């Protein structure tokens, strides 16, 4: 997500990043659940740095929660730390509400069990899932390894309805060039975890943020992930 956040912010806000603990060899579900538990300590790791907004830039871990718990925890962290805090999934939920979108084609690079969690999450959040498009890196489900060409080709093969918004979940999947290609070949709304997160961060920091491929020109502020 770091390269995409940096490109979307385009020096319009200062970006500060801290990383979740690396736990190699642990099952994916265990690692994702640990990210949720570690979030308060990760926020504390910024120390006295003055921040205007903070995003937990991992959507997979939040799919282990229901949307109500996700939203409640974000509200509790915002109150505890005195700044707007959202997960990537909460940022997506806010963006969908802002745009009046209640139906999406869910595009997921996750392992099937986690894609099923994501589908249940959005259904519980009141979002209709018109279609689920599973995206692979070759023969593997590996979000960080999906290339733009693979993403676009598999989406075009799945042929989701053009009047249905695409929701590309997964903060680690490259999406910016794919947005350009998908919107140039057909008029449609394409939302991604990173695009929604940057929009939410700018808006929550009190900056004007029109919706679009890139963030608007704004004064510099500080956001963190």
Computed CA radius of gyration, to the nearest angstrom: 17 Å
* Helix content percent band: 40-55%
Main β sheet profile: 4 strands, parallel
Uncertain parts = 213-221
The coarse overall form would be: globular
Distance between the termini: 9 Å
Task: Work out the helix count.
Answer: 8
Structural class: alpha/beta
Proportion of strand residues: 5-15%
Mean pLDDT across every amino acid position? 90
Total beta strands: 8
List SSEs in N-to-C order: HEHEHEHEHEHEHEHE
Strand order of the largest sheet: 1-8-2-3
Q: Would you give an account of this structure?
A:
With 225 residues, the chain is α/β, with parallel strands linked by helices. The protein contains 8 helices and 8 strands, in the order αβαβαβαβαβαβαβαβ. The strands form 2 sheets. A 4-stranded parallel beta sheet has the order 1-8-2-3. Helix 3 (67-81) links the parallel strand 2 (53-56) and strand 3. Helix 1 crosses helix 8 (193-204), helix 4 (88-99) packs across helix 8 (193-204) and helix 6 packs parallel to helix 7 (176-185). It is globular and about 50 Å long.
What are the SSEs and their pairings?
Blueprint: H1 2-9, E1 14-16, H2 28-44, E2 53-56, H3 67-81, E3 85-87, H4 88-99, E4 103-108, H5 112-124, E5 128-134, H6 148-158, E6 165-168, H7 176-185, E7 190-192, H8 193-204, E8 222-224
Parallel strand pairs: 1-8, 2-3, 2-8, 4-5, 4-6, 6-7
Helix pairs in contact: 1-8, 4-8, 6-7
Summarize the structure.
Helix content is 44%, strand content 15%.
Short key terms for the protein model shown above:
225 residues; alpha/beta; single chain; 44% helix; four-stranded parallel sheet
């Amino acid at each position: 997500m770091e390269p995409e956040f940096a490109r979307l912010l385009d020096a319009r806000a200062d970006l500060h990043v801290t990383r979740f603990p690396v736990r190699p060899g642990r099952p994916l579900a265990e690692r994702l659940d640990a990210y949720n538990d570690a979030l308060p300590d990760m926020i504390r790791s910024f120390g006295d740095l003055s921040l205007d907004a903070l995003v937990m830039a991992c959507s997979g871990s939040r799919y282990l929660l229901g949307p109500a718990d996700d939203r409640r925890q974000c509200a509790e962290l915002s109150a505890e730390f005195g700044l707007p805090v959202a997960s990537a999934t909460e940022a997506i939920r806010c963006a969908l509400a802002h745009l009046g979108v209640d139906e999406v084609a869910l595009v997921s690079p996750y392992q099937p069990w986690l894609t099923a969690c994501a589908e249940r999450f959005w259904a519980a959040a009141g979002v209709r899932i018109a279609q689920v498009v599973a995206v692979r890196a070759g023969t593997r489900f590996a979000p960080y390894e999906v290339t733009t060409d693979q993403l676009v080709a598999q989406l075009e093969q799945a042929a989701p309805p053009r009047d249905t918004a695409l929701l590309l979940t997964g903060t680690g999947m490259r999406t910016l060039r794919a947005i350009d290609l998908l919107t140039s070949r057909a008029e449609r709304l394409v939302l991604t975890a990173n695009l929604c997160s940057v929009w939410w961060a700018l808006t929550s920091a009190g900056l004007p943020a029109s919706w679009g491929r890139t963030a608007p020109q704004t004064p510099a502020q500080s956001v963190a992930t």
